[in-house]
Known about the structure:
The chain is an alpha/beta fold. 38% of the residues lie in helices and 16% in strands. It has helices at 17-29, 47-51, 68-86, 100-108, 131-136, 179-186, 204-215, 270-276, 295-304, 316-324, 329-338, 347-359, 369-403, 425-433, 447-461, and strands at 5-10, 34-39, 54-57, 90-94, 113-117, 140-145, 163-167, 194-198, 224-227, 245-248, 263-266, 283-286, 309-311, 413-420, 436-440, 468-469.
Amino acid sequence: MSKPTIILATSNGVGMGHLARASAVALSLKDVANPIIVSMAGGIAEIPSFMGIRCEYIPGRDRLWMSREKWDQYLRDRLLALVEETNAKVLSFDGVVPYPGVIAARNANPDLKLVWVRRGLWQKKPQRFILGLQAKMMDTIVEPGDIARAYDFGPTSKRKDSTLTSPVSLFRKSDALSREDARKALGLDLHRPVALVQLGTGDSDVNLKMTAALEGLLGWKDLQVILTKAPIDKDGNSLAPEGLDIKVARYFPLAKVLHAFDAGICATGYNGVHELLPAQIPTVFVSNIRGTDDQEARARWCHDFGFALRADQADLADITKVVKQLQDPEVRARLSAKCVELPSTTGGQEIANILHALATQSAPAKAKTFTFIRLMVQDHINRGLRHVANLGLRRVALVYRFINPHIVVQVTKQEPPVFSDSIEPAELHKMIKSATRFEHLITGASPAYRAKREEIAKTAYGDLVEIIKK
Length: 470
């Protein structure tokens, strides 16, 4: 019996949580199925070459390459074309809000089974109001376990419509590199202490948190500091204080080299918590309060039960003070030892088993046209309400912009899209970040699929004179 194809789609979230979970599930599926990951997250560039999993990048609606309505249709058509090309039986979506295009793809192909991988620990954001309608469109809902689930009082916590699994993590003790090998892979000194800092940069408040955290590492003798991106603001100014030995290193998946680190400073996202703590890395969590993820609840649980330290994300002095505690070897030893008690992170395999069972069932899914129409009507109502609310803000913004003209730093080039099936991370990153429209194809795509994708692109972007192929 041939292996079934399963498509794992993810949104472009604040962090790498959605993509990391999809990668963990895909790795667990490889022996019994043909997993394909599609994502709006730029991090997908790392996956094909390092994990041997076929992938496609889909430009998100935040790229503003087309109108919202066109993007919904574009996403639907992209997914339907991929399903037809690969004969996929199951489409899994990991994200807070299943896009209308995802649900429309399922409704257009009733033989396709739709699974929602719905993380818990939601903040009480407006997305909660259509949870019921979204749930009815699904064949199955899976909730990846969270070590901090006891502190989940959000809108998904009382729902009975999902199957709960163990936590999902890309960290696997069995294939993680040893301390020595991990340090060699990162080009680090084998004997000096190393701290990993994963807080990100961008808005001014995020930048200030990065600086405050780095200041907490000053004075740690012989310390090597590893960041996954350069600590600079949008103008190229350094966010790092003088006196630190900082190295920017990219390694994917980072979970494989976690044994290289003596300490970590990290946002309290699902991904960071469920990789660093199972790897027994003494960690300070500095929450990112943007998005739907209730990182503060997760950070409080980790701190209250002694698995990690929590810094007050709103208090820069507290961030520096708490990070400084990591310099104490007794504190690090205590945190590391406590992490042994954490539950197993086998959720990736459990979700893979659920998806594989669905893919090998013969009973077709049922069309849910009426529920789909209700959901789309509600989506348009929600957009209308947001539009009305934004009119006043827009008027204020227009006055402000008249006084302070906006400087455009990047615009989409009005050129035909570039088509490529590249799996090279550097090349993919460049094309994804480019202002030129980029259409990514899975490796081994048929001529018919390429032709279909060109047709979809023309519908989305307008009648193009030519298609640039690479």
